[in-house]
Structure prediction request, 120 residues.
Amino acid sequence: MFDDAKLYFHCAKDGHKLDAIQRSSKASFCVIDQDQIVPEKYTTYFRSVIDFGHIRIIEDEKEKLAAIEKLAKKYSPDEDVADRRKEIDREWKPLCMLKMRIDHMTGQEAIELVKNRQNK
Prediction:
């Protein structure tokens, strides 16, 4: 189901995250789309997803460049290709790229949000 599903991350070339990845490639990644606190009900109206899988450090230079170019294009879509590449080149030496293969995904949504969406 998730044969092609992957996430890319960038980070520094040393630190706790890389130490943990070197000990075990198992990883999870959580995205919280909404978390509205409802104090009078002692709860939150939330929507989130968690991906579970394995993560690795991208060692191949071509794969690393392709990954950072994808991130740069996603977050700076209006920037000129040459300008994006200049920024990538400037940060290349300390850059570490990670690739997470998603094996399993789960999501949750507060019933109140589900009902509100259905009533629209």
